[in-house]
Design a protein that fits this description.
The chain is an alpha/beta fold. The chain is built from eight helices and seven strands. The chain has a seven-stranded parallel sheet, with helices on both faces. Helix 4 links the parallel strand 4 and strand 5. Helix 4 packs parallel to helix 6. The longest helix has 29 residues. The two termini are about 35 Å apart. Bound molecules: nicotinamide-adenine-dinucleotide. Nicotinamide-adenine-dinucleotide binds next to helix 1 and helix 4.
Amino acid sequence: MRLQGKRAIVTGAAGALGRVISSALADEGAAVAGLDLDGPGLELTAQLVAGRGRPSRAFVVDLTDFDAVGGSVEAARESLGGVDILVNCAGGGAVSFFHEMSAETWTTQVDRNLNAVFNVTRHVLPGMLEQRDGRIVSIASVAAIAGGRLVRGATAYAAAKAGVVGLTKALAIEVAEHGVTVNCLAPGAQATPGRDRDTPERREELLAQIPTRLLGRPEDLAQAVVFLAGPAAVNITGVILPLDGGHSI
Ligand SMILES: NC(=O)c1ccc[n+]([C@@H]2O[C@H](COP(=O)([O-])OP(=O)(O)OC[C@H]3O[C@@H](n4cnc5c(N)ncnc54)[C@H](O)[C@@H]3O)[C@@H](O)[C@H]2O)c1
């Protein structure tokens, strides 16, 4: 029970990783409010959290809308009684080759993967600073540090996730002396349901680029989040933790 009594917001809580992260936080004693566009998916995650005996809330919101996010964060804060942990997990890539990419595709990727992190963190941070206690963990990607070798056509996604890396380091310095830590994970390919669509050839192509020859397990990624949100990580900030089987070495 490393997070007993803690109150967490998880963005992208309806998604594959957000759901596992929400469940892992609840397993350690945290109340969880999920923010996502996907209402039915959020409800399922909320049921998993509630099933672990923890308070659970769900807020449907487009995280690229700064003002709407402010309202949802405020509602989450009120219903939880405060926010101690923020996990920025919402996001996702779209394959598009740079020489033919539209400005709209570029903007959408940056909005979804970087600006959403700004929008939510900007609204959550003041409360953490006030209580002089907070943990922010964002889910970037190995694409931010190793380019798009696992998925070609990922320039917009990689650039946006690299923005999350920069934001993490700069914000970590800004708030370090106020009791708030800011870290991020840089996962490689995870064994999420989306990967089931891979052909055997695509699977082999992926594994050939991963020294351990293993896809990441969402449960393991969630444990990294729990660690960074927990008491043992009080003096860890500004870290970019690759979870990629050595791909980025
Ligand atoms: N799955 C992987 O292999 C992998 C690898 C590296 C990084 N990541 C990152 O991890 C995070 C989670 O990935 P996942 O596999 O769970 O993806 P997913 O598609 O299953 O979940 C992403 C969630 O984000 C939500 N979302 C997206 N845009 C939103 C918006 N504008 N407003 C509100 N909600 C929005 C979606 O509705 C979805 O529920 C993403 O940021 C992704 O880039 C995933």
